Amino acid sequence: MYAKFKQLGKESVIYGLGGVASKFIGFFLLPVYTRVFNPADYGIMDVIATMTALAGIILTAGTETALSYYFYKFRDPVEQRKTVTTTGFYLLAINALVAAIVWLASDRLSVLAFDEGGYGVYLRVAILSIPFSSLMTLNFNVLRLQRRPWSYVGLSLSQFLFTVLLNIYLVVILRVGIIGVFWTNVIAAFLFSATGIVVNRSYFGKAFEWKRLAQLLSYGLPLVIGGLSMWSINYLDRYFLLRFSTLEQIGLYSVGLRLASVVAFLTWAFRLANAPFQFEMASEQDAPQIYSRTLTYYVLITSLICVPLSLFARPALRLLTTEAYVDAYKVVPFAAYSAVAYGAYQLVGVGLLVTKKTGFTGLAIGAGALVNTGYLFALVPPLGIVGAALAVLLTHVTVVILLYIGAQRAYFIPYDLGRVLRVLVCAGIVIGGGTLIRPQGFWADVLIAAGFCAIFLVMLPTLSLVEPREQRVILDKLRLPIGPKGG
């Protein structure tokens, strides 16, 4: 069993390196953007990003998950080529059509979002990236499905370097402003979608088939409801802040999310590696035990990241940004664990995926979108950005609970919920204690954070958050003396 987890961990690290390009750029550019743009500028970029994300979710129509399913179902190279080519033609055609429509209606959409049409020019440039981004993502997924992680890393890191350098050139050197960020996305998406097609050229051709498209959409369309609901869960908070607060507060909120994106990036990398892992393990006799352990280790490892990130958020923001952005630390713990909860969808809902009952996934996430609206109404007016972050976290937890109930009925898995909850409670206590203390001075802040991190590490063996045999495995890997092997 541990060999399987070792392979999963290895691929998560590899895909994590590759994922820097699409998921971690905002974090790397944080010191640049916060010194060039004010919080209101950051807020404008964030709101437009929510609009383009909505378009991407609708138009993808669940084909990303459907591609994974049919790629492995039809393992013959001819059939796999048919699956990839059909998906590619669909994504390019539908995204190009809608991008043209949005281009024509950009000023009206700007009025709807911001109550003024002056931001339409940003939206017109931003929407140009949608068709190319969809093809770029498709090619990254094809490399992942072929189990070519190092090709994936090479292409993705190249995109990362190109995007960062072009952003710096346009925004810092040429000083073109916010629009430089959007033009960078367009150019990078075009260049690397074309590069991806060349790398995966054996999977593209004249193999488009309407029947295969019908199969892909039949599998994926139920997930669109979930995708739309996920957009609501992840982005509706900006619109509540826009109505009950200001663009400056949205900018602070966005910066807090950028810092927490360290966790989102890692959970995303894990999801990429875990998706094929789950499908491959479905036929194994010990699959339920493997799925159970995966959830436990996932929560434990992500907590080891969330706790120090949350505790060191305030001093980190002082180093990475200007004083105008420091209050963004307040949203980091909630945003970090929101990313953890979102990553857990795949783990607690695996029974629905392997039994092809994906419709319930959409219903569960749809219910989450509804309660999210209620949470936002209740929490944003009195608490501002903290209320928005807390509302999103509560929503993700609600969806996890619904998925757990539905998936357990479809395919029972003996999860160790007791240990999972102990880890989360201990992490919450430590984060709460560390963030409530607000010492004067940077180094005092660092020392307090380090002290509470040490407390959490002591809790791991003391409260059996890590079992003795797991401690032995960890120490053995570290090549440390471990003493007697007693329990």
Explain what the structure shows:
The protein is mostly helical and 487 residues long. Helix content is 83%, strand content 0%. The chain has helices at residues 2-23, 25-28, 30-36, 39-60, 63-73, 77-104, 106-114, 120-145, 149-173, 178-199, 210-244, 247-281, 287-311, 313-320, 332-348, 350-354, 358-383, 385-410, 417-436, 442-462, 468-477. The chain starts with a helix and ends in a 10-residue tail after the last helix. Residues 480-487 have low confidence and may be disordered.
String of helices and strands: HHHHHHHHHHHHHHHHHHHHH
Q: How much beta, percentage-wise?
A: under 5%
Measured distance between first and last alpha carbons: 20 Å
Percent in helix: over 70%
- How many helices? The count is 21
Major sheet summary line? none
Helix/strand-derived class?
Answer: mainly alpha
Radius of gyration: 22 Å
The counted number of beta strands is: 0
Which runs of at least 5 residues are low in confidence (pLDDT < 50)?
480-487
Overall residue-averaged pLDDT value: 84
Shape: globular
Keywords:
disordered C terminus; 487 residues; 83% helix; mainly alpha
Write a compact overview of the structure shown:
The chain has 487 residues and is mainly α.
Topology, please?
Blueprint: H1 2-23, H2 25-28, H3 30-36, H4 39-60, H5 63-73, H6 77-104, H7 106-114, H8 120-145, H9 149-173, H10 178-199, H11 210-244, H12 247-281, H13 287-311, H14 313-320, H15 332-348, H16 350-354, H17 358-383, H18 385-410, H19 417-436, H20 442-462, H21 468-477
Helix pairs in contact: 1-9, 1-12, 4-6, 4-8, 4-11, 4-12, 5-6, 5-11, 6-8, 6-11, 7-8, 8-10, 9-10, 11-17, 11-18, 12-13, 12-15, 13-15, 13-19, 13-20, 15-18, 17-18, 19-20
